[in-house]
Specification:
Chain A: One of its GO terms (molecular function) is ATP hydrolysis activity. Chain A: Its main location: membrane. The complex is a heterodimer of chains A (507) and B (326). With 507 residues, chain A is of the alpha/beta class. In chain A, 34% of the residues lie in helices and 24% in strands. In chain A, strand 19 and strand 20 form a beta hairpin. Chain A is globular, with a radius of gyration of 25 Å. A two-stranded antiparallel ribbon of chain B has the order 1-4. In chain B, strands 2-3 form a two-stranded antiparallel ribbon. Chain B is globular. At the A-B interface, helix 2 and helix 5 of A face helix 9, helix 10 and helix 14 of B.
Chain lengths: 507, 326
């Protein structure tokens, strides 16, 4: 409200962060003013988190400079950032479950009373209780973290950051697990900090929040800055338009297929992070599952695959109900449900083993019923698998680690083809894969559906979903909030994103 | 104090029941001499279990404890055996040599694990082999025995009917309790054990904490080694073999979790006495040494099973909680 408002606290100059194969942040320049609440929005993978992690000292930029309070700022650790007065509230909880609230809030800055560095627990608890009271929280500093609810734990994270000296406070989706009352608290605190001259960078997907609290807003897309505007000068549809303006590469090869029998139908399914889900997938159909991170997409897929527990509801496979008691991954695999995970290296294949072994992995029991392995059968099946999806390799004996990401993905898909799966669940099938290989994976997925396979595809890449899927279910906060069909006029990125964000009325 | 009592795990009440069993059925179990015997027998293992407890609390483990004890025992014993008429100063030097040997191993463990980020299992296993090996080389397979009375009295001298080694163990334990429950170092050690990532993000110098933990563990093992020479009046290449497993058992019985950051050294202290008391009871009931080992194993298995079951029950409860907030 005075001249100080316009002064720059942090300026980010031409910052680029390169990861193998992708520029997470691409030549980005941005100024954060003193005492402003600066919102950053963007789709999943737009580079928001990478950017703030650079500011908070968690990772180092590849090129570019940060200028903080007029001086060059290049933190080597979180500690350096904290010393400069920059703190961050992380999206995921990062607390010591078996320690008290006070011990967590004051970790690494415990007040000591003698030269022996004895921790003054009394002082620590009382100053922690003061912070908690300021935040309007009604739990005690001496309680153990594991006895608090998730929302309360989130507020401990807030307390932890607020208790430090802050010139710049970064909040990465702090409200994802808070109730409305707690969000109000948090906003009150945020405004208080702002009035004390603290600048705040606020990342969120919840549009109402942004309008309520922000001063300026920056939209990011594919690691680059699209625009920075005053909140008062921009409307929500405009923001969404800027978020989704991602270039659509013409690599999709969706062909018309004839839709057959119902393969999977899920009725009122409730589980770990999702509620009352109703979906169905038919033979020859590609169904997309869109939503923001944390919407419960992967959890739903894992429940269908028998990996995560189901609380209530039923799953029908070819019209037959899967008995909840023997709903295990093994049963799901036997029925013909396959899951192609997001994290290929950790969950998708056996690193260090040959293509052949990896391809057989799901089918041992079926190929060799008497338990004796025949090399000729192995070789023949593996060769067929490699040919079917056109895996670029001189031999099936080759180590999968030596293949490119795209070819690894193809090996995983052929593993399930060998096994004769009926339903294929893809979790982010093209993450970290270059464009050329992407096209091949798309045509492989298309091939699956042409042969009558049913495909459920989770993706954060909207052009990819729109290019491949016949229908898209959109999830938000654990519920299916909408469905868009290819034949509908509003089969657009704007429509999907606005449902995912919860602003369906504006699109 | 209340805070510390809370850290006494449920497991230990079961163990106390075992002890009650012996109180009733084992002959002479509550005899004053037997109780002193139990305390005396648990004293040295208490000291090294403190080191083991530290490393496990920090989420890792030090497998070299028994080897380091042995190396420290034989090297200090060799030194002392060379002295014709030892003075108090010689005894002090002998102890410092033992502690020094332990610290060197602890230092190496710490540097390799904390600084160079080598796997703690491999490093401490290698160090275990090296230290047992050194003990073999130094002694040439011989037993060194027959030390002066003054040296033996460091542990054996009886004050108010209780041998010195018990006092030493209590003092070391109190120091360790103070260090872990009261000081900044202790808080940081818990933080590192509970979540290394969280600790690092909070600005704790994780490397330094880990280094100090291994250094301390080595130092305590070295100290335990010399005390063992004084108490048993001999040193050989297998004087402390297998002590790393006994220490591990004590720590587990005391409720320190392998997850790191859960439990406390008070548990290691109590666990040491309980296991010694149980073994002593079995002995009094006429069970052979071999059976005692079997029994220790079964006892640990039981504890692990109880622990796992209670964890699972907690987990299902938490799952529901997550769902309610989804």
């Amino acid at each position: 409200m005075n001249g100080d408002q316009q002064a720059t606290l942090l300026s980010i100059r031409n910052v680029t962060k390169v990861y193998p194969g992708v520029k997470a942040v691409n030549n980005l320049s941005l100024e954060i003013r003193k005492g402003e609440i600066h919102i950053i929005v963007g789709e999943n993978g737009a580079g928001k988190s990478t950017l703030v992690k650079i500011i908070a000292g968690l990772i180092k930029q590849s090129t570019g400079d940060l200028i903080f309070e007029g001086e060059k700022y290049s933190p080597n650790s979180v500690l350096d950032a904290q010393k400069a007065g920059i703190n961050m509230i992380h999206q995921e909880l990062n607390l010591m479950q078996d320690r008290t609230v006070a011990q967590n809030v004051f970790v690494s800055r415990e007040p000591v009373k003698t030269r022996l560095r004895v921790v003054d627990t009394k002082k620590m608890n009382s100053s922690c209780n003061k912070i908690l009271a300021d935040l309007g929280l009604c739990f005690d500093a001496s309680m153990l973290i594991k006895d608090l609810s998730i929302a309360q734990q989130q507020m401990v994270e807030v307390a932890k950051a607020v208790s430090r000296e802050n010139k710049l406070l970064i909040m990465d989706e702090p409200t994802s697990s808070l109730t409305q009352k707690e969000i109000d608290h948090l906003f009150a605190i945020t405004r208080l900090l702002k009035s004390q001259g603290t600048s705040i960078i606020y990342i969120s997907h919840r549009m109402q929040e942004l309008m309520e609290i922000g001063d300026r807003i920056t939209v990011m897309r594919d690691g680059a800055l699209i625009a920075t505007k005053n909140i008062s000068e921009i409307s929500m549809p405009e923001i969404i338009k800027m978020m989704v303006g991602r270039k659509i590469e013409n690599v999709f090869s969706r062909t018309e297929t004839t839709v057959g029998e119902k393969v999977l139908s899920v009725n009122n399914l409730t589980g770990l992070r999702f509620r009352n889900v109703n979906i169905c997938i038919r033979e020859g159909e590609i169904v997309g599952l869109a939503g923001l991170i944390g919407a419960g997409r992967t959890e739903l897929a894992k429940a269908i695959y028998g990996k995560d527990p189901i609380e209530s509801g039923e799953v029908l496979f070819y019209g037959k109900k899967i008995n909840r008691r023997n709903y295990t991954t093994r049963n799901a695999v036997d029925l013909g449900i396959s899951f192609i995970p997001e994290d290929r290296k950790a969950e998708g294949f056996f690193s260090g083993m040959s293509i052949k072994t990896n391809m057989m992995e799901a089918s041992w029991r079926f190929l060799f019923r008497r338990g004796i392995v025949k090399n000729s059968v192995l070789d023949r099946t593996a060769e067929e698998g490699v040919k079917r999806l056109n895996v670029a390799t001189p031999s099936v004996e080759k180590n999968v680690d030596e293949l490119s990401g795209g070819n690894q993905q193809k090996v995983i898909i052929s593993k399930w083809l060998v096994h004769d799966s009926k339903l294929f669940i893809f979790d982010e099938p093209t993450r970290g894969i270059d464009v050329g290989a992407k096209a091949e994976i798309y045509s492989a997925i298309d091939e699956l559906s042409k042969k009558g396979g049913a495909v459920l595809m989770i993706s954060s890449d909207l052009p990819e979903l729109l290019g491949m899927a016949d229908r898209i279910y959109v999830m938000k906060d654990g519920e299916i909030c909408g469905e868009v069909r290819r034949d509908a006029p509003d089969f657009t990125q704007e429509k999907v994103l606005s449902i995912a964000i919860g602003e369906s009325q504006i699109a | 104090m209340n805070d510390i009592l809370k850290k006494v795990p449920g497991l230990m009440w079961g163990s106390l029941l075992m002890v009650m069993f012996f109180v009733i059925f084992a002959p002479n179990y509550t005899n004053q001499r037997n109780i002193i015997n139990i305390l005396q027998n648990s004293a040295i293992i208490i000291i090294v279990s403190m080191g083991m407890g530290l490393t496990i609390l920090s989420g890792q483990i030090d497998m070299s404890i028994g080897g380091v004890m042995t190396a420290s025992a034989v090297i200090s014993a060799m030194y002392f055996a060379h002295i014709q008429s030892p003075t108090a100063l010689d005894i002090l030097v002998t102890f410092l040599i033992g502690i020094g040997v332990g610290s060197v191993f602890g230092f190496l463990n710490g540097i390799l694990i904390a600084r160079y980020k080598f796997n703690f299992w491999l490093v401490t296993f290698a160090m275990m082999s090296i230290s047992y090996g050194i003990a073999q080389v130094v002694t040439g397979g011989k037993v060194i025995s027959g030390f002066s009375k003054s040296f033996r009295n460091v542990t054996r001298f009886s004050l108010a009917g209780i041998p010195m080694v018990v006092y030493i163990a209590v003092i070391v334990s109190l120091l360790m309790f103070f260090l872990t429950y009261k000081t900044k170092f202790g808080m940081h050690m818990y933080a590192v054990g509970a979540s290394e990532k969280c600790a690092a993000q909070s600005g704790i110098r994780v490397e330094r904490i880990r280094f100090l933990i291994y250094l301390l563990s080595g130092l305590l093992s070295g100290f335990g080694g010399v005390l063992l020479v004084s108490k048993t009046n001999f040193a050989s290449a297998n004087v402390a073999s297998g002590q790393e497993f006994t220490a591990m058992a004590n720590v587990i019985i005391g409720g320190i979790s392998f997850d790191g950051g859960k439990g406390g050294l008070l548990g290691a202290f109590a666990g040491s006495i309980i296991l010694t008391a149980i073994l002593n009871g079995l002995q009094l009931m006429g069970l052979s040494n071999y059976w005692q080992q079997v029994f220790t194993g079964i006892f640990i298995l039981l504890i692990i099973i109880i622990d796992v079951i209670s964890q699972r029950m907690k987990k299902t409860k938490n799952t529901r909680r997550v769902y309610k907030h989804a």
